[in-house]
Design brief:
Rossmann fold, alpha/beta, elongated
């Protein structure tokens, strides 16, 4: 039995098909939340982050469910490389997805939450947010 009662609440989860995101979706579903799953494969991620697609997807959630109560940013990409050899384009890509993606998703839901005078934004980090790891300099930054 879940300790949360989220019936009649709508949650957006980014990174919804990954390990952490999937687990979050499962718990939200058990608690009764309607869930909009936001995820995309790595090939399309860069276009997704740089486009207005995110805002239009948020609007479609608002139209379908009547509002947004929660945004859980659980997405993230990484690339393994020794720091001295880390390609600048990969560093930029990782930061556009992992940082700019959080900013854009939060910015897209913000007006809906302000209008309804309620909502929660939760930004999730892996253990790499606490403990560094070899070859993941861009991801842990």
């Amino acid at each position: 039995m879940s300790f949360l009662n989220l019936q009649s609440r709508t949650s957006i989860v980014t990174g919804a098909t990954g390990g952490i995101g999937r687990a979050i979706c499962e718990e939200l579903a058990k608690a009764g939340s309607d869930i909009a799953l936001f995820d995309i494969d790595d090939e399309k991620m860069e276009q997704f982050v740089r486009s207005a697609d995110l805002c239009s997807r948020v609007w479609s959630v608002v139209d379908e469910f009547g509002g947004i109560d929660h945004l859980i940013n659980a997405h993230g990409v990484q690339f393994l490389s020794p720091f001295a050899e880390f390609p600048e384009d990969k560093w930029t890509f990782i930061h556009e997805v992992n940082l700019m993606g959080v900013f854009l998703a939060s910015k897209a839901v913000w007006p809906h939450m302000v209008k309804r005078k309620r909502g929660r934004i939760v930004n999730v980090a892996s253990v790499r947010g606490i403990v560094a790891s070899e070859l993941k300099s861009a991801y842990i930054a």
